[in-house]
């Protein structure tokens, strides 16, 4: 009977987070293996719509050994450019990766280390790095089961373009980054869109002569750690601000869309006998988004005043549309809605990790990715350490930190050299 293969480190997930870990492990010449259920960094190609683009400027893309290398640092890479950028990173890292292999269980071994069960056989490891992200299971509410079979339903990860949906109006549920951008994509394609708006914040694309991201970088926002954020770990539950990099970048203003014919509603609550019912909180959600928008701009105003930077004069957003009345219902047949796109996020699924590192909500407890269960680390989660932890901007720095901790632990486990031999 052949021995089970052993590796110092097993990395679960071959996206930019797992690849960044592999980069730093290779720099330290630490033996490791990366398992990826599909193909390296496949998400950008297989789970994004055709007109998808970055919402942060290209200059923020700073994977280890692979900063943005294109001609437009202040632009926003579109889907094909993102895929090409990540593929070049894969080629540079040249990771020891097993693609098409799923990890089905990780557990501690009585003699130390971990057993790793996969779809292609078992291995053992001293260290486990979970790099599979936190967006695993698309959230679709059970209410969806009650909708008429004639209504085509997809999740945001399945949306590609307006042409894939049947003729007729489209209901988009959720107004975070994906929901707002998919609603815009459909709207620009000439489709009649109904949008269920949630309590998502928004921000300006450009303000006082510069991209808002550039101002926030100057203000140190992207270096703020979870421990220093006013919300502490609560920031990890925040919905991302909606904005877009499309066509060179612009605001997403749902009020303007309403003026152009998009129908807006509050949070979707239920369905019964052909009619959808919404919470009557549309005005509240729009006002919250605008307060956030103006609040960020006001912080930039203070920074400009304090530093004496020359910039165009300040401004305050004034609503271009207000709901004439809250509409609490939508008759599907009467409105001609033929399809629905669920844009209400994903749920994490770490059931395969049989190690006590989770809190009561099923989320990993860690400090900058390092858990109290020695040998288990996480990487690539939103706000793992800073805002950029789940993005191209800071995942490489987080990976370097995690690998440094791993290297120290591995060194402490090595038997002492026999200098007398």
Distance between the termini: 33 Å
The chain-level mean pLDDT equals: 94
Assign an overall shape: globular
Unreliable segments of 5+ consecutive residues: 417-421
Given helix and strand content, the structural type is alpha/beta
Which percent band covers the strand fraction?
15-25%
Count of discrete alpha- or pi-helical segments spanning 4 or more residues: 9
Helix content, binned percent: 10-25%
Number of domains: 2
CATH superfamily of the largest domain: FAD/NAD(P)-binding domain
- Report the CATH topology name of the largest domain: FAD/NAD(P)-binding domain
InterPro entries: Auxin_biosynth/cation_transpt (IPR050982), CHP04046_FMN-dependent (IPR024000), FAD/NAD-bd_sf (IPR036188)
GO molecular function: flavin adenine dinucleotide binding; monooxygenase activity
Keywords: Oxidoreductase
Protein name: FAD-dependent oxidoreductase
What does this molecule look like?
- It is globular and about 70 Å long.
- The strands form six sheets. Strands 1, 2, 5, 6, 7, 8, 21 and 22 form an eight-stranded mixed β-sheet that branches. The protein has a five-stranded parallel β-sheet with strand order 10-19-11-12-15.
- The chain contains nine helices and 22 strands.
- Mean pLDDT is 94; it is low at 417-421.
- It has two domains: 6-136 and 348-413, FAD/NAD(P)-binding domain; 140-342, FAD/NAD(P)-binding domain (3-Layer(bba) Sandwich), CATH 3.50.50.
- By secondary structure, it is of the alpha/beta class.
- The chain has helices at 16-27, 43-46, 79-93, 177-188, 212-218, 254-259, 282-307, 332-335, 395-413, and strands spanning 6-12, 32-36, 62-63, 66-67, 97-99, 103-108, 114-118, 121-130, 137-138, 152-155, 169-173, 193-196, 206-207, 210-211, 263-265, 268-272, 275-278, 329-331, 337-342, 346-347, 353-354, 376-378.
- The longest helix has 26 residues, at 282-307.
- Helix content is 25%, strand content 21%.
- It comes from Methylopila turkensis.
- InterPro entries: Auxin_biosynth/cation_transpt (IPR050982), CHP04046_FMN-dependent (IPR024000), FAD/NAD-bd_sf (IPR036188).
């Amino acid at each position: 009977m052949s021995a089970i293969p052993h590796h110092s480190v097993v990395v679960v997930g071959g996206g930019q987070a797992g690849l960044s870990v592999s980069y730093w492990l290779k720099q330290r010449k630490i033996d490791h293996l990366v398992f990826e259920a599909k193909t390296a960094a496949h998400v950008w190609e297989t789970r994004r719509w055709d007109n998808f683009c970055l919402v942060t400027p290209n200059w923020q893309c700073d994977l280890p050994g692979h900063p943005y290398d294109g001609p437009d640092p202040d632009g926003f890479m579109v889907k094909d450019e993102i895929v090409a950028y990540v593929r070049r990173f894969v080629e540079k890292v040249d990771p020891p990766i097993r693609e098409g292999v799923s990890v089905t269980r990780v557990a501690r071994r009585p003699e130390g280390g971990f057993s790793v069960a996969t779809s292609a056989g078992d291995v053992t490891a001293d260290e486990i790095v979970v790099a599979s992200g936190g967006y695993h299971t698309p959230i679709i509410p059970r209410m969806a089961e009650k909708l008429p079979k004639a209504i085509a339903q997809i999740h945001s990860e399945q949306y590609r373009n307006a042409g894939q949906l049947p003729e007729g109006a489209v209901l988009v549920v959720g107004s975070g980054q994906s929901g707002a951008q998919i609603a815009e994509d459909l709207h620009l394609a000439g489709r009649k869109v109904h949008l269920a708006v949630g309590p998502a914040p928004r921000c300006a694309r450009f303000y006082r002569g510069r991209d808002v991201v550039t101002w926030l970088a100057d203000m140190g926002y992207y270096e703020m750690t979870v421990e220093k954020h006013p919300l502490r770990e609560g920031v990890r539950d925040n919905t991302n601000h909606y904005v877009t990099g499309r066509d060179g970048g612009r605001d997403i203003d749902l009020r303007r869309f309403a003026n152009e014919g998009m129908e807006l509603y509050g949070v979707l609550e239920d369905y019964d006998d052909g009619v959808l019912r919404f919470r009557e909180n549309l005005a509240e959600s729009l006002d919250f988004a605008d307060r956030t928008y103006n609040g960020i701009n006001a912080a930039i105003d203070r920074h400009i005043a304090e530093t004496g930077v020359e910039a165009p004069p300040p401004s305050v957003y004034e609503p271009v549309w207000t709901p004439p009345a809250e509409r609490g219902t939508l008759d599907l047949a009467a409105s001609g809605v033929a399809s629905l796109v669920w844009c209400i996020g994903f749920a994490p699924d770490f059931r395969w990790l049989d190690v006590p590192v989770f809190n009561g909500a099923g989320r990993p407890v860690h400090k900058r990715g390092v858990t109290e269960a020695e040998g288990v680390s996480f990487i690539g989660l939103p706000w793992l350490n800073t805002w950029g932890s789940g993005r191209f901007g800071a995942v490489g720095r987080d990976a370097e930190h995690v690998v440094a901790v791993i290297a120290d632990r591995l060194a402490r486990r090595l038997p002492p050299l026999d200098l007398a031999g």
